[in-house]
Amino acid sequence: MGKPAAVCAGRTRGLVSLLGAVPCLACHELPAMSTEPGGRGGGGGGPAGGAPAAPPGSDTYKGWLFKWTNYLKGYQRRWFVLSNGLLSYYRTQAEMAHTCRGTINLSTAHIDTEDSCNIVLSNGGRTYHLKANSEVERQRWVTALELAKAKAIRMRNNQSDDSGDEEPASQSDKSELHGPLKSLSSKLEDLSTCNELIAKHGAALQRSLSELESLRLPAESGEKIKAVNERATLFRITSNAMINVTGHILAFRSWKLVWNPLVVEGRERREQCGRDTGGALGPDRARWVLKSTSSPECLKPCVPTGSVQSAKGEASDEDEETEYFDAMEDAPAFITVTADPKHHRRSGSNLSGASEGHPEDWNLEDSVFESSNQSSYNESTCKDLLPKKRRRTRIPDKPNYSLNLWSIMKNCIGKELSKIPMPVNFNEPLSMLQRLTEDLEYHELLDKAVKCESSTEQMCFVAAFSVSSYSTTVHRTAKPFNPLLGETYELDRLEELGFRSLCEQVSHHPPAAAHHVYSRRGWTLWQEITIASKFRGKYLSIMPLGAIHLEFHSSGNHYVWRKVTSTVHNIIVGKLWIDQSGEIEIVNHKSKDKCQLKFTPYSYFSRDVPRKVTGVVSDADGKAHYVMSGTWDEKMECSKILHSSHGSTSMEGKQKTVYQTLSPKVLWRKYPLPENAENMYFFSELALTLNEPEERVAPTDSRLRPDQRLMESGRWDEANVEKQRLEEKQRAVRRRREAEAVEALEEGKDYEGYIPLWFERKVDTVTGELICVYKGGYWEAKDKQDWSVCPDIF
What we know:
Number of helices: 15
Distance between the termini: 77 Å
Number of strands: 27
Radius of gyration: 31 Å
Largest sheet: 7 strands, antiparallel
Shape: flat
């Protein structure tokens, strides 16, 4: 057998050399046997590349053909590869290294010819309409396809005879193929880094030992012995890292039993993943969310999109509009290696270029970290015991309304995106103020942070809280209601959970909301958020502007951070999914501690799990104390750093740091969704209660908004009528204010414009920004039930 062709790029070449015929990460197939001259495809005369590169009957048959895509683009030139009974295609030859656009299994396919140059391949619900340059070229392809089909049928029958007693791989096994390969590639890279570190520290240790042997003066012995001890410690750390990573590699041997039956089964998965169904415009296309939300379950290595078949009877196999993002190469590069505190012997030296912690600081019995592990799920149980009022656990099921987005958009051409009136069909029955309040779903993280004596320990809980706010809407792609100017929302859980929250819409253009939360358990949070959005054709970028402030009463620690960018993909065509990307820098302005969190964007080619978040907590001197890791839709963990060692610079120009840490502790884990959540807008337990009617709230509260209430009840037609009435009422108020401003200008008087009721603008002493802060009076007005200052907005 010849050498495998280089069908996998980058680090996969190393896998091929180590493991031989390893399945391709892109196609889930074994590397093809190249029979082309010089190992290159294509060539020949004619626009489609001429005759195929290999004669019919060989192991691999490659060449250019035209493939029907849709009525807009017609036939498109594609590079086809026939190998092992499978016909795969790519946009270019270079794509063979990473992206297979579609595959059809010839063993069950029907081969037909329409005319002198056309070939039609059909397999179940999939059909390929292909065209060659000439009848001679068409005949070569047909001959090759027929021979490959006969061979594939024989192979299938032989496999069936040999393994008649074996059960086929289950559907769950299919999904297990990609994960082990990505993890294996990552572990190999870590192994290479550790190898470099061992070589470097080993050489330094050897030099020190040589110098020690040549010593003659006793006065010098102390200095040299200290240097030897330092380098010996570093060498031991990286040696342990090497051993641990090698253990991970060896553990992957067990996957061999899974890979063998999955190679064939994985091809079927690739067939589905290579397809772009070219969906038409529909309600999903308009459900962009004006808040940081998260991507749905379709965020996996292959994401079929859309639901409409092309007019030729085929489901289009390639995604003509799919956005492919490169892996984030500038993410913080570090490796964490878990150490056993029982075997960790503290060195008395000051390690150069390394940070050192004490395992005894990581109190396994009394630490606040330990309590967080046990309370991640128990907290939800406590919620059922603590409240004095029984909250609702369901809302009416979402009606199945269909609506064509194009019928709306065609009448709005030329208008600003933010000013296009949208029916409630694209909304969920919550306002933006209520969605902002959902950030408090995991408020108990801040309650635990109050108990932390160490500021860096406290920073870990604050970081976990900042990440948890993105999990509340992980499956929700519907748009919240835009609040009316002066609209408010309160969440008074002072007696039940120890906090009370108030939001007010303080500006309409641009939309801005102010938020203030007081907790009697020792913290206060406030923010003013303005949403900036950019529509980029295939996706919508949502950038929350404004800082979030958190202050702990007893210590005076004042934390500030900002939200990352949310991206809504497949706005026009395909199934919507949402991703978070960017960095969050959390700064304690009292102690100067920092936490850098990196939200890695989803990438088809990335080895990382989707929605990954990593970060490091460091003190004012830049010394790293904790490593944060997890995903923004599931959980966050924290590991205490014992030692850190800087490795050599990689080919990408990044320097990896090896952190030796204690075992990670789970600080936050997402609560499971309520039963029947998929029919209730995927609301969480808290979200189901946010719009529950309550007495004594202000007349401007979002719970009293009529169109939102009608939508929640399933009366969408009435809700649309009411929504138009409210919007027209708001426009009338704005026109009146504009007229008053013009009149004041003519009379030479000052006009202040709209003034928020419960918030006032002040310059923040920390950030220097002009923000809206709570000025007081709301809860006093609620106690007195004096709402005379509230405007009539509903």
